[in-house]
Write a structure and sequence with these properties.
binds adenosine-5'-triphosphate, alpha/beta, four-stranded antiparallel β-sheet, binds magnesium ion, six-stranded mixed β-sheet
C-alpha cells in the first residue's frame, strides 16, 4: 500500500468553488478565466502516490500551488474535491479529533523559516512536538537529544536559538520533526532561505539521514537542481496542475512539454543521468586493445563518471549488468549530445525504448501504478547520487 495517495485533488479559493471544480473537470474553463471572475484555482486535479521511504518532490514556480497541495496532504486545508489517503485512511473523512491525532503523531512539517521559540533552548525547541503529544519530560529529552545528534547538533542542546546560524536553526526544525518519530515529513521550501553552500550541506544531510531513517518525505521546492538531487520522484507543477510526474531522469530525458524543457536547461545533467539513459542497446561491444585503460561501467553509473571512463577509452564504453552481461554501449557522440543538452530527447529515445520494457510508462498522472515500478530505478539513481555526493559524516558546521 502506498503511504500517501492523492486522488483528483482540487483546491479552489473564492466564489462558488464547487462549480469551478465542475467546470475545470470538464475543461469548460481555465485558471485565467476563473481568476478574472475572482476565483483562484490553486490546485487542479492533482493525483499521485508516494511509497514508504520515498522522497517525493513537488517543484514549480511561485504561485503554482505547491504549498496548497502540501497543506491538503496533512489535512490543514480541506480539498474542494478529491481525497487524500494516508496509509489507506481517507484523511478527508476523518473526524477533526482523529485528524488532529494523525497530524500530531504521524506527520511532521518543516517550513522555510522555521520559527524557534526564542525563550526555549535548543533541546526544548527540538522536544516541542513531543511536548504537544504529552510525552513525559525524561523521554522527550532523550528523543530530542538523539534527533539533534542525527542533525549534527550534539553539544548545542543548552544553547539559545539566537546563538545559532540560520542553517543550524533550520536543523533544529528538522530535529523537531524527526524527534516525533512521524512516518511522513512534509517539508515546504525547508532549505530555500539558506545560502547556497549551507543549502547543499542540508541536502546532503537529508540524504544521509534518509538512508538511515527511511521516512516518507514530501519536499517542496522551486529549485530544479534541489529537486533532482533529492527526489526519487518529482512532480512538476504549473498553474495548479501537475504537468509531469517522474524520476529526475525521466524529466531530463523526456520533458513533457516546452515549459518543462525550458526549466531543465540549466540542470547539471552529468550528475543526474546514468549510463542506462544514454546507452544504445543492441550494439556490439568494441574489442578492447591490450592494456586498454577503460573499466567496466554499470547501468547506474553517473554520466559524470562515464565521461571520465570514455575520455580514457579508445572505443565506445560498454555498459554491463552486475553479472557481466552486456546491456549496451555508449558512443562518445551520445555522451556529448546529452552533456550539451541539445539532443537530450533524441539521445534518450533509443535508450528509452530499452528501459521502458523494464519500467513501463513513466509520465502523466495516470501512471501512478507504473510509478511504483519506476521507483526501483529512481531509488538506485538517488542512491548513486547519495553515494557520490553527500558527506560521510554529520558535522555541526553551518
Ligand atoms: N488562503 C488563500 N486564499 C486565497 N488564495 C490563496 C490562498 N492560499 C493560496 N492562494 C492562492 O493560490 C495560489 C497557489 O498558492 P500557493 O501558496 O499554493 O503557491 P506556491 O506554489 O506554494 O507558491 P510559493 O512558491 O510562492 O510559495 C496562488 O495564486 C495564491 O495566491
Ligand atoms: Mg509555497
Amino acid at each position: 500500500m502506498s503511504r500517501l495517495q492523492a486522488d483528483h485533488l482540487f483546491k479552489v479559493f473564492g466564489r462558488r468553488p464547487d462549480e469551478a471544480v465542475r467546470r475545470l473537470a470538464v475543461g469548460d474553463t481555465d485558471r485565467e478565466e476563473l481568476r478574472a471572475e475572482g476565483t483562484t484555482a490553486a490546485v487542479v486535479d492533482a493525483g499521485f502516490t508516494v511509497e514508504p521511504g520515498q522522497i517525493f518532490v513537488v517543484m514549480g514556480l511561485s504561485g503554482s500551488g505547491k504549498s496548497t497541495l502540501l497543506r491538503m496532504l496533512n489535512g490543514l486545508l480541506e480539498p474542494t474535491a478529491g481525497r487524500v489517503l494516508f496509509d489507506g485512511r481517507d484523511l478527508t473523512a476523518l473526524s477533526p479529533r482523529d485528524l488532529r491525532t494523525v497530524r500530531s503523531t504521524k506527520i511532521s512539517m518543516v517550513f522555510q523559516h522555521f520559527a524557534l521559540f526564542p525563550h526555549r533552548n535548543v533541546l526544548e525547541n527540538a522536544a516541542y512536538g513531543l511536548e504537544v503529544q504529552g510525552v513525559p519530560r525524561a523521554e522527550r529529552e532523550t528523543r530530542a537529544t538523539e534527533a539533534l545528534e542525527l542533525c549534527g547538533l550534539a553539544g548545542w542542546e543548552k544553547s539559545w536559538p539566537d546563538e545559532l546560524s540560520g542553517g543550524m536553526q533550520q536543523r533544529v526544525g528538522l530535529a523537531r520533526a524527526l524527534a516525533t518519530d512521524a512516518d511522513l515529513l512534509l517539508m515546504d521550501e525547508s532549505f530555500s532561505a539558506l545560502d547556497p553552500l549551507i543549502r547543499r550541506d542540508m541536502q546532503d544531510q537529508l540524504l544521509v539521514l534518509q538512508q538511515r531513517l527511511k521516512k516518507t518525505i514530501v519536499f517542496i521546492t522551486h529549485d530544479l537542481n534541489e529537486a533532482m538531487r533529492l527526489g526519487d520522484r518529482i512532480a512538476v507543477m504549473r498553474d495548479g496542475r501537475i504537468v509531469q510526474l517522474g524520476t529526475a531522469e525521466d524529466i531530463l530525458v523526456r520533458p513533457a512539454d516546452d515549459y518543462v524543457a525550458s526549466f531543465i536547461q540549466d540542470v547539471d545533467r552529468s550528475r543526474v543521468l546514468t549510463a542506462s539513459a544514454v546507452m544504445t542497446g543492441g550494439a556490439t561491444p568494441a574489442d578492447c586493445p591490450d592494456g586498454c585503460a577503460c573499466r567496466p561501467v554499470g547501468p547506474d553509473t553517473l554520466v559524470a563518471d562515464l565521461c571520465a571512463v570514455a575520455a580514457r577509452a579508445p572505443h565506445p564504453v560498454t555498459v554491463r549488468d552486475s553479472d557481466g552481461s552486456v546491456l549496451g554501449v555508449v558512443p562518445t557522440e551520445r555522451l556529448l549530445a546529452v552533456m550539451g543538452g541539445l539532443g537530450a530527447r533524441d539521445a534518450g529515445d533509443q535508450a528509452d525504448a530499452k528501459t521502458d520494457a523494464k519500467t513501463g510508462p513513466k509520465t502523466g498522472q495516470a501512471d501512478t501504478e507504473a510509478g511504483s515500478k519506476a521507483d526501483t530505478k529512481a531509488g538506485s539513481a538517488t542512491g548513486s547520487m547519495a553515494a557520490t555526493q553527500p558527506k560521510k559524516e554529520l558535522t555541526a558546521r553551518a
